[in-house]
């Protein structure tokens, strides 16, 4: 969802399937899966030279797999890392591993409660060789990647800090082109806000998101991201005070500026905020906290 208070970065020169040199240690290949949620497509990053790690092999696209294999010709893939298990990030990992080898690492999403339908767009078949936890290190010849657990967008979301170049691969946690959708039940706004603070406490000078261009001055950008979320909660409270106390009524009022086809995603983020506001005692509802409830100020 867009926010005029954030200095978005949308200018990006690229060619699908081509290898772009981003830094001395990082190359990028973009998958051809553009959408309102992925911008131009998923950025797959190659870290290192000779002995490399691949971050986010992306969706299950034969064209993208062939482009990655061509880009990796003559090199050894030691590790394949996944920031999180949405369908635009992890399904390409196993096919790539089948061709190139390497240890596949990532984390599992939180278990689905009995009786609940699986959350949409999650790649539940993801089966890593190594389950990542916060602080775990993956290293190769001339590069070191630290896993930074940043739940919120997804419960299993990991950023990866490249120590040698003082940069952070931020996946979908912080993106330069747009705000991040937080969709319960796996997505959680309280966790997301805490993960923004976690990144602000770090010292990386550049962020490389999984969609869109680099973020070269990440601290003020991330603060703007955080402020935008707080502004949304103020807007929600204003809606409740004015009688627009359901998720559909709030979306209709707050998101007039975006195409209607994006309203379903907006509704998920609004509900994530309401869930957070209920957890922190700012709003209440007569029944369970849900996307169908009517809310009032506590």
Structural features, described:
The structure is a single chain. By secondary structure, the protein is an alpha/beta fold. It folds into 2 domains: 20-225, Metallo-beta-lactamase, Chain A, CATH 3.60.15; 231-297, Arc Repressor Mutant, subunit A (Orthogonal Bundle), CATH 1.10.10.10. The protein has helices spanning 62-71, 93-100, 189-200, 218-241, 247-254, 263-279; strands at 20-23, 26-30, 43-47, 51-55, 76-81, 103-106, 130-131, 137-140, 143-149, 158-162, 167-171, 206-209, 283-284, 296-297. The chain has a 7-stranded mixed sheet with strand order 1-2-3-4-5-6-7, with helices on one face. It has a 5-stranded mixed sheet with strand order 8-9-10-11-12, with no helix packed on it. Helix 5 (247-254) crosses helix 6. The longest helix has 24 residues, at 218-241. The radius of gyration is 19 Å and the shape is elongated. The two termini are 27 Å apart.
Would you kindly provide a brief summary of this structure?
The protein is of the alpha/beta class and 298 residues long. The chain has two domains: 20-225, Metallo-beta-lactamase, Chain A, CATH 3.60.15.10; 231-297, Arc Repressor Mutant, subunit A.
**Mean pLDDT across all residues, rounded?**
95
The termini sit apart by 27 Å
Strand order, sheet with most strands: 1-2-3-4-5-6-7
- Count up the domains: 2
Report the CATH topology name of the largest domain.
Answer: Metallo-beta-lactamase, Chain A
- How large is the share of residues in beta strands? 15-25%
Number of helices: 6
Structural class from helices and strands? Answer: alpha/beta
CATH class of the largest domain: Alpha Beta
Q: Topology as H/E string?
A: EEEEHEHEEEEEEHEHHHEE
Task: Let me know the CATH homologous superfamily of the largest domain.
Answer: Ribonuclease Z/Hydroxyacylglutathione hydrolase-like
Find the count of extended strands (DSSP E, 2+ residues).
14
Give the second-level CATH assignment, the architecture of the largest domain. Answer: 4-Layer Sandwich
Oligomer: single chain
Contiguous runs where pLDDT drops below 50 for at least 5 residues = none
Largest sheet: 7 strands, mixed
Helicity level: 25-40%
C-alpha Rg, in Å? Answer: 19 Å
């Amino acid at each position: 969802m867009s926010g005029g208070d954030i200095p978005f970065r949308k200018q990006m020169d690229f060619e699908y399937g081509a290898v772009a040199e981003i830094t001395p240690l990082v190359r990028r290949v973009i998958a051809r899966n553009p959408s309102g949620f992925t911008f131009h497509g998923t950025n797959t990053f190659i870290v290192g030279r000779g002995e490399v790690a691949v971050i986010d092999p992306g969706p299950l696209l034969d064209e993208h797999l062939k482009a990655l294999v061509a880009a990796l010709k003559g090199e050894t893939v030691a590790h394949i890392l996944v920031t999180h298990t949405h369908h635009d990030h992890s399904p390409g990992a196993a096919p790539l591993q089948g061709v190139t080898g390497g240890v596949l690492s990532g984390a599992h999403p939180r278990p689905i409660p009995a009786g609940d339908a699986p959350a949409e767009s999650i790649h539940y078949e993801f089966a890593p060789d190594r389950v990542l936890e916060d602080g775990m290190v993956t290293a190769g010849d001339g590069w070191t990647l630290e896993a930074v657990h940043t739940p919120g967008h997804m419960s299993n979301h990991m950023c990866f800090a490249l120590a040698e170049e003082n940069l952070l691969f931020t996946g979908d946690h912080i993106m330069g082109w747009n705000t991040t959708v937080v969709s319960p039940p796996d997505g959680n706004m309280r966790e997301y806000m805490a993960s923004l603070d976690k990144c602000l406490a770090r010292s990386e000078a550049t962020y490389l998101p999984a969609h869109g261009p680099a973020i070269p001055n990440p601290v003020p950008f991330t603060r703007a991201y955080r402020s935008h979320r707080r502004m949304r909660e103020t807007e929600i409270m204003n809606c409740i005070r004015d009688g627009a106390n359901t998720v559909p009524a709030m979306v209709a009022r707050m998101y007039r500026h975006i195409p209607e086809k994006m309203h379903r995603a907006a509704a998920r983020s609004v509900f994530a905020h309401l869930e957070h506001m209920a957890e922190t005692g700012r709003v209440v509802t007569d029944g369970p906290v849900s996307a169908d409830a009517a809310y009032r100020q506590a």
